[in-house]
Amino acid sequence: MAFNFSLTKLLPIAAVAAAGGAAYYKLGSNAEARLPPTRKLPFPPSADFPDLSKHHNIMKNHLTPGVYAQLRDRVTPNGITLDQCIQTGVDNPGHPFIKIVGLVAGDEESYETFKELFFPVIKERHNGYDPETMVHPIDLDSSKLTGGKLDEKYVLSSRVRTGRAIRGIPHPPMCSRAERREVERVVTDALQGLPKDLEGKYYSLKTMTDKEQDQLIDDHFLFDKPVSPLLTSAGMARDWPDGRGIFHNDKKNFLVWINEEDHSRIISMEKGGNMKSVFDRFCRGINEVEKLIHEKGWEFQKSDNLGYILTCPSNIGNGLRCGVHVKLPKLSQEPRFNEILEKLRLQKRGTGGVDTAAVGGTFDISNLDRLGKSEVQLVQEVVDGVSLMVDMEKKLEKRQSIQHLIPK
Amino acid sequence: MPNTNTARYTASEEFPDLSKHNNHMSRCLTEEIYKKMRAVQTPNGYTIDSAIQTGVDNPGHPFIMTVGCVAGDEESYEVFADLFDPVIEARHNGYKKTDMHKTDIDPAHLKGGTNMDPKYVLSSRVRTGRSIRGLCLPPHCSRAERRKIEQISCEALAKLDGDLKGKYYPLKGMSEEHQDQLINDHFLFDKPVSPLLLASNMARDWPDARGIWHNDKKNFLVWVNEEDHLRVISMEKGGNINEVFKRWCTGLQLVEKYMKESGYEYMWNPHLGYVLTCPSNLGTGVRAGVHLQIPLMSKCPQFDEVLGKLRLQKRGTGGVDTASEGGTFDISNADRIGFSEVELVQMVIDGVEFLIECEKKLEKGESLESDIKGLKQK
């Protein structure tokens, strides 16, 4: 049996098992044809509805039997289904105190195809941002940043990171090996064209030497095969380490991860408190890369209402985490520390990154928000917020009150 | 797991890098075969990429030559025969695609094994797997299908009576107390942690529709929806493997009878025998074995050679991938297909009796040279 399919078909073809013998579907001679999911679905959606009774994640809050029934049989143009997107949330019940999303986008189109679930999840995760009606602001003009040189006595390092996905290729949970390799090719080609101070080398995880590996570990640049069940049950570790790698410039302050949790993660960092310099380099690097991929006919995944589109709904918009390692031993002991952070729209993490503890009063402080604010806005908030907290720390050192400094 | 967008890239661009791999799949999968298999799917939408994912993600195992591919449904073995046939041949000692498998679960055909010396034989056990025709296997089944498998199995098991009468305990909602009890009984199976299983997607939706059924006498046990639809286990302390086998045969056949009454049957065909998730379990799916105390024999330099001739394998007392403790080994049949169930259990009985004789001789300080020399390859 040969099938020809229109590229615009979004709904699945109901499977019909071939009568007798070895039943299979043959790809027609039309090279554009795709193999649709051919699963027989004799069961109603209610029979497939996951048991989320013990679960605590944002997906669970919005996946009702009604929504599931609507979405179960829909398929994106890449053949991705809702079940694939929610698998990580079904397999990881979560914790009442830690809010995780529990959902990934298999491809760019997942957000719209399954919007009955993705949009309310986004709304909850991003403080009420409504993708149906709102437009996300993008601003990578670092010249707009005011100040940005933080007190190095307290601020040990500064860092800005984001992610970017290549349009037309599914995300790490669902991409095939060839697609992953294509992402690697597209991004590394672009990185080769970067200007002088951003020039560097790409280290493929598959071919790097032991010596190179050790060096990258010492530099704190190396990422490893995911072990978190949140990532592995979403399928992101498949075919490791094929298609994965790390680029960094010779100056070691501009770094790109390829095919880890997103197609690419772009990081600008340096020791000390010169966030302005970090952000300048970040914007220049990203804008250059975008220009270079355009020249080859590629673009980043982006939309007016969702901003830059990435694997996890928590990262869409700008995917920006701008942060510092800052010494606040006294302020962090203040009972109102968490409240202050909240008011400044900042979050704290340990110096090992997400899910680690702080060491010796040194914290990783970064922006809380992603969607709904531009890059410039967020970096400004971090710069202003950290400046204020350093002032508070200085006051506490002198045993002075910080009451009047606490934002309303 | 991967998306179905195969049109934009050639098979060559998609072909996995297997240069550092050593498993049956990596040895058998050529680009030519991959290209052919990539153009098709099973009627349930299972692809060659899904089948080989576990072998791609797990380059090799330090102690065992792993298979490296799994079936998502019964049709996988047919649709992807170009890969599965050579893998089966390599894994099962040259079992060809034209060979026929024989099934024999008549315990009357078994000789001996009724009273193996309890000084050496601590416990006896027979297990196999069964799949329910018409429903996808654990790597590919949906939640609804998995729940259906649970329902069909429970309905059939509920009809068992007499010594086999028992109860089903779903993993979901099991109390801590009961969990501890089942662990003490060596009955409980847990969410897979082996990367070999995780990479083939068998742990999805855990613990939904998984559970353990056992009889009140605690010597007949069924696992539902772990690595296969059903794993059927008969066991008891001591060396009466004959009785263990009898109970196992009775239980298996009764369950099949009750399933047929409801319109279901096991996956089976004359070439592959019983169809299970892992190609290593095709045929009988039988692992019949004992925990054997042979501290002296196991240290004998020809121990592995002897096992090879007897067509037996050794494992630690924790099961696959564990080490033995205090000279106690798990000794079981090495084959699965090409021999009937009776033949395999017979080999275990005969082999274990031989090993006990060897152990006794070593205890008396006697030489095993002539025994080992005279031992013919089974």
Explain what the structure shows.
The complex is a heterodimer of chains A (408) and B (378). Chain A is an alpha+beta fold. Chain A is 30% helix and 14% strand. Chain A is built from 12 helices and 12 strands. Chain A has helices spanning 45-48, 58-62, 65-71, 82-91, 110-113, 115-125, 177-192, 210-218, 229-232, 275-295, 337-343, 375-397, and strands at residues 2-3, 26-27, 155-164, 200-204, 245-249, 254-258, 264-271, 302-303, 307-308, 321-327, 346-349, 362-367. The longest helix of chain A is centred in the C-terminal third of the chain and has 23 residues, at 375-397. Chain A is globular. The relative contact order of chain A is 0.13. The model of chain A is unreliable at 1-38 (pLDDT under 50). Chain B has 378 residues and is of the alpha+beta class. Chain B has 13 helices and 10 strands. The mean pLDDT of chain B is 93. Chains A and B meet through β2, α4 and α7 of A and α4 and α7 of B.
